[in-house]
Design brief:
Two copies of one chain form a homodimer. The first copy, chain A, is built from ten helices and nine strands. Chain A is α/β, with parallel strands linked by helices and 221 residues long. The first copy, chain A, folds into two domains: 82 residues, Winged helix-like DNA-binding domain superfamily/Winged helix DNA-binding domain (Arc Repressor Mutant, subunit A, Orthogonal Bundle), CATH 1.10.10.10; 113 residues, 3-Layer(aba) Sandwich (Rossmann fold). Chain A has a seven-stranded mixed β-sheet with strand order 5-6-4-3-7-8-9. In chain A, strands 1-2 form a two-stranded antiparallel ribbon. In chain A, strand 7, helix 9 and strand 8 form a beta-alpha-beta unit. The longest helix of chain A is centred in the N-terminal third of the chain and has 19 residues. Chain A is globular, with a radius of gyration of 20 Å. Chains A and B meet through helix 1, helix 2, helix 6, helix 7 and strand 8 of A and helix 1, helix 2, helix 6, helix 7 and strand 8 of B.
């Protein structure tokens, strides 16, 4: 079954944790890491909520999924909460990723420090353009997609980042799936068809801009 | 009031149309444009729903916000629905935007065709690095942020794209707001504080990756 970003909130087969909740867990995690750097050993749901513009009740509901971590009037132990969120999200271990499409976006992603900080390592970079193959970007040599199966087998990469133009996206996705990739982060503005068992998150920057245009039009909410 | 992506779904002061619904309207629009290219004059809620992995009921609920466009058993007139969504999202007119931070991500965004297709035009590119000022990227000359107020006044730009490192993001956002920008699309992995009346949509790529890791860990849903 193929799916697109935000579909899981809407259709009948919801996981216990919605995509919106998973997104908030990531944002809580980001904020908690900041609190920890600032020396806060305990945090309250209202501290977390205020930092992210979410109600206390929503914070408590989201965090209840992680187990009984908080105590009324005392709050959540920052470090335990960080560990629980990382475990739930599946980022208490590293993830190896490959990138297909060695353009400007790929270059930006290779330098994006946020990925490494959260344990996402880019271990391969691929492009169909023979003129690019052999060039190095941030220490990674650009390879032909023919090498995908070998690189994925050797590195154990499970995630693929698609930074190709829309018209090449389905073919690149098919090659990644055939090579054993289990999840795709798709930046190409197109709908992808994927087999069951392969997860997809789409980053459609035009959707984000349209959301912004809507908010500005509504008067800057 | 500052806010982050997804906060509007969760807090008490919801607009009539949630961020999730606005996101789906964008996705419907993308699909409808495809249907129109394929020559479909009418579409049903189930055609739209199937294409995006959303239930019919959700599609009808989202589209009801646009007015009485559909007819039971006949469907929605494709062209009218496209026009109605573009009007609701505020993209029945062009938006001018400036980009602050002339790195690889900015270069990728300047070449991103999806923006122009939907009427989002980048009219200015800025960087604090004097070595970059004066260079051209895709025909746009990189300028010093000192020129922001003049460029924004001259072009009528209302949106700003922040592609600076996290530690420079708040200062860049403050400069954009002081120069009259009404909405920010933030790519820097940090929480921004903005005055009332300025809208914010944050694109945190680590959040998207964490969502993907979660889905893969759950067994490829």
């Amino acid at each position: 079954m193929s799916k697109v970003d935000s579909s899981r909130e809407a259709n009948g087969s919801e996981a216990r944790l919605s995509r919106a909740s998973v997104g908030r867990l990531s944002l809580y995690l980001r904020r908690l890491e900041g609190f920890l750097r600032d020396g806060l050993a305990k945090v309250s749901s209202s501290q977390l909520g205020e930092a992210l513009g979410v109600t206390d009740a929503q914070v408590r509901k989201d965090l209840a999924y992680l187990g009984h971590l908080g105590q009324p009037g005392i709050g959540y132990p920052t470090q335990d909460l960080i560990a629980a969120i990382r475990h739930t999200l599946g980022i208490d271990h590293d993830w190896a990723m490959v990138v297909v499409g060695a353009g400007n976006l790929a270059r930006a992603l290779l330098r994006y420090r946020g990925f490494q900080q959260q344990g996402f390592r880019i271990v391969g970079l691929f492009d169909v353009d023979p003129a690019k193959v052999g060039q190095k970007v941030n220490g990674l040599e650009i390879q032909s997609p023919d090498s995908l199966p070998g690189v994925i087998a050797a590195t154990g990469a499970e995630l693929g980042l698609l930074t190709v133009p829309a018209e090449s996206a389905q073919a690149a996705a098919d090659a990644l799936v055939a090579a054993g990739i289990r999840g795709l982060l798709n930046f190409a503005p197109t709908v992808l068809r994927l087999p069951a068992g392969v997860s997809l998150v789409s980053v459609d920057l035009t959707v984000q801009l349209e959301q912004l245009a809507f908010l500005v039009q509504m008067g800057g909410e």
